């Protein structure tokens, strides 16, 4: 094919983006640290209230007391042990739940026959509150690790299954036809069209699944554990130590956010093509 | 050469989209297919592209029967359908497999150059205007060097100025490469600018109603009186094809 010099010059529309006068006028408004202001103000306020003796702070200890408890747990090496136990359970449960959710979700989304066969049963199982499985899992799998991991896996499975099957099912036929016109089928069509096209939804499903995983690890550890952040919660309740409960809650929040951030960071290079509203900022 | 013999397509819901359609397109010929909505234009193109199975009839390209998308046939859809996760150069390279990197790069940039976008290869589809995106789609179809290029109302979503520029551009590409063109359009002017022969379809079910050889000299001038005359003639034929026989109202 020989080249033809084009005389067509169309306006480039790559200078888009959302104008944000407000943020340009006050650069600090753009800072991501803006979100810290409210919790920090509340913490300092409560600290002052207790410090000045306006409140006792017995049921809601001031931040300094929670930090002291956290420091005590950290210095003794106890906290690392609890975090390790909880992380291991979440990691195993997430792995099993996510792999099963992706595999079955993708198969059900891709194959109408499998959808008719499996989806009604999965949806029926999904309608059962997952905590209702606890007694059965304890009977079947014992009180130790296996039942806890199984419960977390169940919690992770459903949002991942739902997200992945919906993403595959609703994939634009027109995009699939581009693959077909270049004679892609089977495995090659899946790798070159289905996986990249559904990736944003799959990542979102995994993030939702991980969130559920963190929720279920608490339930799993509340049902009887001698280690883990959930154990710290139960122990704090039984010993009447709200500072320990709050310390455990803070650690949950931090680790939950960190693991979610890990998924976002790891997936970012594969999603930089996305043309999102937020992408302009 | 493209041969279609007594091609019919009835959808599972009973809609007859195309009935006994026969057509031969010689190698290097540019044929336009026009008709009102529901006359099976797009179905016809999807059948030739191998994206759909025919209910009956035969489709051949250079003697090979078409039962699925064929390597000798390229298709430009109505919308650009660029893959948003691939850069412009990767989109163009999508259909090229089994080539070494240097050759692939050369082919991709030759195709991008032919549509005047060789400086845009590293960009993302989201950074392209509608006209640019459609030119990328054209480059993606051209890069595999098809002997037949199918175009399904490729410029219908563009503004009038961009549309006429791209029509002229397509004609220049066709003159350079002499590939066989089948252009489906509802735009009479577009059909007359591009094609040597215009086929007029009649709806319900889609079938050939009339035909018009276009012997205007190239480059064709839209303001020329002979172009205007050809346009009038084609418009009359198209109007005729859309006339519903009186007995159709009887029952």
Automatic annotation (TrEMBL), chain A:
PROSITE patterns named among the record's database cross-references: ABC_TM1
GO biological process: alkanesulfonate transmembrane transport; cellular response to sulfur starvation
Pfam families per UniProt: BPD_transp_1
Leader peptide range in chain numbering: none
Family under the similarity heading: Belongs to the binding-protein-dependent transport system permease family.
Residue intervals of the ABC transmembrane type-1 domain: 83-263
Transmembrane segments: 34-54, 91-113, 125-143, 149-168, 189-206, 212-234, 246-271
Coiled coil region boundaries: none
Entry protein name: ABC transporter permease
Taxonomy of the source species: Bacteria, Pseudomonadati, Pseudomonadota, Gammaproteobacteria, Oceanospirillales
Membrane topology qualifier: Multi-pass membrane protein
Compartment(s) where it occurs, according to its Swiss-Prot or TrEMBL record: Cell membrane
Keywords in alphabetical order: Cell membrane, Membrane, Transmembrane, Transmembrane helix, Transport
Superkingdom, natural source: Bacteria
Cytoplasm listed as a keyword: no
A GO CC term assigned to this protein in UniProt: plasma membrane
Automatic annotation (TrEMBL), chain B:
This protein's record includes keyword ATP-binding: yes
CDD domains xrefs: ABC_NrtD_SsuB_transporters
UniProt cross-references to PROSITE patterns, sorted A to Z: ABC_TRANSPORTER_1, ABC_TRANSPORTER_2
GO molecular function: ATP binding; ATP hydrolysis activity
Residue span(s) of domain ABC transporter: 2-228
Keyword Transport: yes
Assigned keywords, A-Z: ATP-binding, Nucleotide-binding, Transport
Family, similarity comment: Belongs to the ABC transporter superfamily.
Protein name: Nitrate/sulfonate/bicarbonate ABC transporter ATP-binding protein
């Amino acid at each position: 094919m020989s080249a033809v010099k084009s005389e067509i010059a169309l306006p480039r529309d790559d200078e888009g983006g959302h104008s944000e006068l407000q943020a340009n006028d006050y650069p600090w408004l753009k800072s991501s640290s803006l979100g810290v202001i409210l919790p920090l103000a509340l913490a300092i306020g409560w600290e002052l209230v207790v410090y000045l003796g306006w409140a006792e702070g017995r049921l809601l200890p001031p931040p300094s007391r929670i930090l002291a408890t956290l420091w005590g747990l950290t210095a003794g090496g106890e906290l690392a042990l609890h975090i390790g136990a909880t992380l291991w359970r979440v990691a195993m449960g997430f792995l099993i739940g996510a792999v099963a959710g992706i595999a079955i979700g993708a198969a059900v989304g891709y194959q109408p026959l499998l959808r008719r066969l499996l989806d009604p049963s999965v949806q029926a199982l999904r309608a059962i509150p997952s905590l209702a499985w606890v007694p059965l899992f304890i009977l079947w799998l014992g009180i130790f690790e296996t039942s806890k991991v199984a419960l977390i896996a169940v919690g992770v499975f459903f949002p991942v299954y739902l997200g992945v099957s919906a993403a595959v099912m609703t994939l634009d036929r027109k995009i699939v036809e581009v693959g077909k016109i270049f004679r892609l089928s089977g495995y090659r069509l899946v790798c070159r069209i289905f996986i990249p096209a559904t990736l944003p939804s799959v990542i979102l499903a995994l993030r939702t699944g991980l969130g559920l995983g963190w929720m279920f690890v608490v339930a799993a550890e509340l049902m009887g554990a001698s280690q883990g952040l959930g154990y710290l919660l139960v122990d704090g309740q039984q010993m009447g130590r709200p500072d320990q409960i709050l310390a455990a809650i803070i650690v949950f929040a931090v680790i939950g956010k960190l693991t979610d951030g890990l998924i976002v960071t790891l997936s970012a290079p594969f999603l930089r093509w996305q043309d999102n509203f937020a992408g302009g900022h | 050469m493209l041969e279609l013999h007594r091609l019919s397509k009835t959808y599972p819901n009973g809609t007859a989209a195309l009935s006994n359609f026969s057509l031969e397109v010689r190698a290097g010929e540019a044929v336009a297919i026009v008709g009102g909505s529901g006359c099976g234009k797009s179905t016809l193109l999807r059948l030739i592209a191998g994206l759909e199975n025919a209910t009956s009839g035969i489709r051949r390209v250079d003697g090979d029967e078409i039962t699925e998308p064929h390597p000798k046939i390229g298709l430009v859809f109505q919308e650009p359908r660029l893959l948003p996760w691939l850069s412009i150069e990767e989109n163009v390279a999508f259909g090229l497999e089994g080539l070494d990197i240097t050759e692939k790069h050369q082919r991709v940039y030759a195709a991008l150059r032919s549509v005047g976008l060789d400086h845009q290869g590293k960009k993302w589809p989201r950074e392209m205007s509608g006209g640019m995106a459609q030119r990328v789609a054209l480059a993606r179809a051209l890069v595999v060097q098809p002997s037949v290029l199918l175009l399904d109302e490729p410029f219908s979503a563009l503004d009038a100025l961009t549309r006429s520029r791209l029509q002229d551009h397509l004609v220049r590409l066709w003159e350079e490469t002499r590939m066989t063109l089948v252009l489906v359009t509802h735009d009479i002017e577009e059909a007359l600018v591009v094609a040597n022969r215009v086929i007029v379809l009649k709806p319900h079910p889609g079938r050939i109603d009339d035909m018009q050889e276009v012997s205007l000299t190239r480059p064709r001038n839209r303001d020329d009186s002979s172009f205007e005359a050809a346009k009038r003639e084609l418009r009359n034929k198209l109007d005729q094809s859309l006339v519903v026989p009186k007995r159709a109202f009887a029952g």
